[in-house]
Design brief:
By secondary structure, this protein is largely without helices or strands. 9% of the residues lie in helices and 12% in strands. It has a domain of 172 residues: Photosynthetic Reaction Center, Chain H, domain 2 (Alpha-Beta Complex).
Length: 308
């Protein structure tokens, strides 16, 4: 039973948690608000089933790390917490230490399981976790069961495990979520959300400028001139009476002469009026995207499952 770190087994494991990371969740005692530590990693089997949470009891990376079987935990996704069932911080400090250099084989797991088996026997009492068995001592068969206070409560029906036949399903209390600690599985789906945002696409500046051009205008004018005509009267050669008008020296006829001159000037008039306004054109923009939806797959061969 080879175990793998979650990130090594599935680099894209965060997609299963809708982008969230189970690493970094705080671990609390289920009996109160006592913080035990932080999940620094997860160990999974060859099929990807969660088997242990690696709990860092101190500062990130630098604290002591212990293993918490998933069956002894309760995950609250709403609060982003993992509760250790039947464990206090003091009991967690007494657990065997885990580090990345250890080989997680059957013997090592039996040492870890032995502690939790002992704790499970006294789960309803105040018995502390038994950590007297050193981690480097292989423990198999009946020797894997811790002694001391728990020994008196054993019965003849206490199971004995064999390294050749052992399977995680043999101990659901350690590796499966029981009915009391069942989880709510959220199914997510994506949907298209259509919003509008107003953005500036341009600017129209309307102003005036002065252009100069040469304009021509024709103005008819009148000029007077004197025309002197000498004609022979009809009574020429006919004798007339001498009166005061004849033979008078210095008689002058005055004729005034006028002419028109153009009076050209400029005046400003309204040529046209420009009205500036905005109109709104409406159109429908259609978008097409691929959306995902989670469906529930129930895999329980041979079992009658009531789905409501």
């Amino acid at each position: 039973m080879v175990l793998h770190k979650l990130g090594d087994f599935d680099p894209d494991y965060r997609d299963s948690f809708q982008g969230n990371d189970i690493k970094g969740l705080s671990v609390y005692s289920d009996a109160g608000e006592e913080k035990i530590g932080t999940i620094s990693d997860v160990l999974v089997d060859d099929e990807g089933h969660f088997r242990y949470f690696v709990v860092d009891l101190g500062f990130w990376i630098f604290g002591k790390k212990v293993l918490l079987p998933v069956g002894r935990s309760r995950i609250d996704y709403n609060a982003d917490r993992v509760y250790a069932v039947g464990m206090t911080r003091q009991q967690a400090d007494e657990l065997p230490e885990f580090n990345d250099d250890l080989t997680v084989d059957y013997d090592y797991e039996e040492n870890v399981r032995g502690v939790y088996r002992n704790r499970a026997i006294g789960l309803d009492n105040t018995t502390s976790l038994d950590t007297t068995t050193p981690l480097d001592t292989p423990v198999t068969g009946a020797a894997a069961m811790p002694a001391r206070a728990s020994e008196s409560r054993r019965t003849a029906d206490t199971p004995v495990y064999n390294r050749d036949t052992y399977a995680y399903r043999d101990e659901p209390s350690l590796y499966e979520m029981n009915e009391r600690d069942h989880q709510t599985l959220r199914l997510y789906e994506e949907r298209l959300v259509a919003n509008k945002e107003r953005r500036k696409t341009g600017e129209v500046a309307i102003g005036k400028r002065v252009e100069t051009e040469t304009a021509r205008v024709a103005v008819p004018v009148e000029k007077e001139r004197v025309v002197v005509e000498r004609v022979t009267p009809t009574d020429a050669g006919k004798a007339v009476n001498v009166d005061s008008t004849a033979f008078r020296e210095g008689e002058i006829a005055n004729v005034e002469i006028y002419e028109e001159t153009p009076d050209i000037r400029k005046e400003t008039v309204v040529r046209e009026e420009v009205r500036v306004r905005k109109v709104v054109d409406q159109e429908t923009v259609e978008a097409q995207e691929n959306i995902r939806r989670e469906e529930l797959d129930v895999n329980a061969p041979g079992l009658d499952i009531d789905q409501r």
